[in-house]
Amino acid sequence: MAQQPLLELPEFKNASTGTLVVKEPLNYWGGARVQLKDAKNSEPVYEPATGRVLCNLVPCGQEEVDQAIQSAHSAYLKWSKLSGMERARVMLEAARIIRERRDDIARVEVINNGKTIIEAQADIDFAWQSIEFYAGIAPTLAGQHIQLPGGSFAYTRREPLGVCAGIGAFNYPFQIAVCKSAPALACGNAVVFKPSPFTPVTAVILAEIYKQAGAPDGLFNVVQGGAETGTLLCHHPMVAKVSFTGSVPTGKKVMEMSAKGVKQVTLELGGKSPLIIFKDCDLENAVKGALMGNFLTQGQVCCNGTRVFVQREIMPQFLEEVVKRTKAISVGDPLQAGARMGALITRPQLDKVLEYVRKAKEQGAKVLCGGEPFVPDDPKLKGGNFMSPCVLDNCKDDMTCVKEEIFGPVMSVLPFDTEEEVLQRANNTTYGLASGVFTRDIARAHRVAENLQAGTCYINNYNVSPVEVPFGGYKMSGFGRENGLVTVEYYSQLKTVVVEMGNVESLF
Ligand SMILES: NC(=O)C1=CN([C@@H]2O[C@H](COP(=O)(O)OP(=O)(O)OC[C@H]3O[C@@H](n4cnc5c(N)ncnc54)[C@H](O)[C@@H]3O)[C@@H](O)[C@H]2O)C=CC1
């Protein structure tokens, strides 16, 4: 009997905070959810807002990873032979279904991830837009014709890589699965995706949607698990490329393992990005930018501008306004429309963030607001991983909170005097994912953008990442790009064909 898609099951349809229990298998290959034979290594996955068990994660071992990759490979053989127009048609249908089911997918994402519904809806909108964008590009993929002497010529073909593995982080589960699969599929590849073990639920919904849209069985597969399953993907000889989103230490391991098989790698890693606010800025916009650059997804965003450099003359006004607005952020049930901050991903992650705040105080920072565990009034949320968003003043460049990626709602504010000084301090980090500058001086804005060592620089805004704009890191924040036209280069390879129209001129 055909499986009923997850989103149509009654428990998914009526899901609200504290009610969803997922019993259906979350691994997916060969066009269907797969129940693993051996569930002995299964681990509970908790709902961040309640601390309740949401599902049990059954990790894939060698045999299952191999099955998923074989299934991807057979789909690749068919999919790669389709024209770009044919691939686009399937992708556009997938985008349409996602758009139609946007609120349902967003609700499940909230329950699994803990972010607020308003953010999850934006993430799902990003997802269908990304698939639409790459569907539009699929028919345009083409090579070049190069005229040679004597009527001979060469041409290039932009060809897919084969089976691409995607490994995702927990903070944008559905969106990351799409950011990797949309360009990969547009170029003619097949994908095996491993979500974070903390957020296993929505990737399989994406798999079901691709199938419903007409993708061949095996084109997009999901293998669940943690480091071990990820390792199996990186080592598998039939995987042509690994696209990884996660922390720097794991990214290094992924690169090392992939190097053994000379696999292509894209690394979307962490950051400790600078946001520079000059005294000639529009202060209200700068404050809004600092909040958007620090508190989305409970601060668990790779490109967050967590080192906020403020020119000394406007520091008092900036702090007053930023603290007032931070205190007004409503923390609570992420499925409530009014909530603006939900729960952190896990209890250990919450403890880690609170420890960063404690250490910051010990090193001399001043907590202007927040930085404490938060227990909402609603009894069902008592076991959730909530904390109050935090602003730290009196920060110095050598403090731990300024140097390390906290991955929680903690903003460190630092004074500066001159442009030259702030650029030097902003760049004094091994990371280079993003950066931002607020100023009304147009020449200064572009000069600062040029001199910041980061893959993205936002001028007079922060954390704006539309699908058509490339995104990725400098330095230890990784390499390769996601989003935008350039990403097709990371999911395809160029074949050169040389055609002789005359006789072979042999030296022998
Ligand atoms: N640059 C970007 O686009 C983004 C970067 N990130 C970064 O991700 C990090 C937070 O995400 P986490 O999920 O905590 O990262 P993580 O590095 O702990 O895990 C990421 C993924 O790697 C897998 N993994 C762990 N060990 C592995 C191994 N040895 N081999 C293969 N796979 C392995 C995990 O199971 C998970 O799926 C932060 O540093 C954040 O900045 C997050 C989102 C976007």
UniProtKB/TrEMBL annotation:
Reactions listed under catalytic activity: an aldehyde + NAD(+) + H2O = a carboxylate + NADH + 2 H(+); 4-(trimethylamino)butanal + NAD(+) + H2O = 4-(trimethylamino)butanoate + NADH + 2 H(+)
Domain Aldehyde dehydrogenase per the UniProt entry, residue ranges: 41-497
Major localization listed first in the record, in broad terms: cytoplasm
Keyword Nucleus: no
Entry-linked SUPFAM superfamilies: ALDH-like
Pathway membership: Amine and polyamine biosynthesis; carnitine biosynthesis
Assigned GO CC terms: cytosol
Protein origin, superkingdom: Eukaryota
Keyword Lyase in record: no
Single GO term (MF): 4-trimethylammoniobutyraldehyde dehydrogenase activity
Subunit architecture: Homotetramer.
PANTHER family, sorted: ALDEHYDE DEHYDROGENASE-RELATED
Name the UniProt record assigns to this protein: 4-trimethylaminobutyraldehyde dehydrogenase A
Name of the coding gene: aldh9a1a.1
